[in-house]
Amino acid sequence: MIKVVKKIPELKEIIKEWKKEGYSIGLVPTMGYLHEGHKSLIDKAVSENDKVIVSDFVNPIQFGPTEDLATYPRDLEKDSILCENAGADIIFNPEPEEMYNDNFSSFVDMNTLTKGLCGKTRPTHFRGVCTVLAKLFNITSPDKAYFGQKDAQQLAVVTHMVEDLNFNLEIVGCPIIREEDGLAKSSRNTYLSDEERKAALILSKSLKEGKALIENGEKDAKKVIDLIKSLINTEPLAKIDYIEIVSWPTLEPIETIDQKILCAMAVYIGKTRLIDNVIL
Ligand code: AMP
Question: Does the Cβ of 31 fall within 6 Å of ligand 1?
Answer without folding.
Answer: yes
